[in-house]
Amino acid sequence: MSDTLVIGAGIIGLLTARALAEAGAEVTLIEMGATGREASWAGGGILSPLYPWRYAEAVTALTQWSQLQYPQLCAALREATGIDPELSQDGLLILDSDEEVGASAWAQRHGAVLEGLDAPAIRSLEPRLGPQPARALWLPEVAHVRNPRLIKALRQAIDRQIKLREHEEVTELMASHGRVTGARTRYGVYKADRVVVCIGAWTARLLEQLGQRPTIHPVRGQMILFHAQPGQIRHLVLSGGHYAIPRRDGCILFGSTLEHTGFAKTTTAAAKEELHDQAIALFPLLQRCPIGEHWAGLRPSSPDGIPFIGRHPGIDGLYVNAGHFRNGLAMAPASAQLVTDLILGREPILSPAPYALDVGRESQGP
After folding, report:
1. What are the E-state strand segments in the chain?
2. What would the mean pLDDT of 169-186 be, rounded to a whole number?
3. Domains delineated in the chain
4. Band of the pLDDT at 361, cuts 50, 70, 90?
5. Separation between Cα atoms, residue 132 and residue 125, nearest integer Å
6. Mean pLDDT on 260-271
């Protein structure tokens, strides 16, 4: 028996387990598949919302706190494991010129560095860009990580701190007299005084057994990868909701779709063609680059993209850290720290009120 059970070993669950273990908790982490191989693996690794000014203040608070932690986190993981998460501050170039008014107000409010660029400046940043608007937005401080490498590093780094059970789906949360007692899988029962649910798109399905179903549902996203040469695309580029992410080895990730298909995680030929055409329109050089991979993941959608972080209102000892939609990596360090603060009764890094489970936006009943 561990005193704390964390369910879900994506980026949210991994960092939550790490924070709790570092605070002295004895942690068992249970993952229904392989560590980190759902949304955390499938995403692009951008450490900012794509259009941050479109999001609620509660999202900005989590992302800004997390952005400050990533350099230290990635350095510590690299030193501990030898795996480099490839944190790269390449900056984000946004070609949607009609966003400038809202973006400028947001940047001034939050002290973010934002520049408006004219056509020559855009061309200077990305010489191989195709047709472009007369104006663009430039956020030079936006970074990204190579998320599969980040997951591998975290998995290795916490291996000696926690007990990890992979390929073991939790089928039931167990409670008695209003208090959590553990969880059941097909292999048996895990008893614990505290349970933290971090299973993203699957969270509502598990919690509805207890009569409190947060409004989280899966939204499929598909992406493709091009094999290009290093330096051909220099920065993160966003246009019309689609984005290109350059990796250090020259690979270019391009995404993504937003599809309400339930828990279907299959790829489709139509999405591949759409992404391919959009990528070539943005960067014609990709016409000559082979597609290496095409994959899909399930994002945990939530109202306004605000995650649910905190205690269950009806079951003592039960906590949730889920519903991060498209920004799980961007919000993960702060989310893990916040839920850990709440579990251990410490002064929280941020006000937990916007993320609580006992407000109307979050519950649709059993």
Report:
1. 4-7, 27-30, 92-94, 115-118, 135-139, 163-165, 170-176, 179-185, 188-191, 194-197, 217-227, 236-239, 242-246, 251-255, 291-301, 308-311, 318-322
2. 96
3. 4-62+149-213+303-355 (3.50.50.60), 89-141+217-301 (3.30.9.10)
4. low
5. 12
6. 96
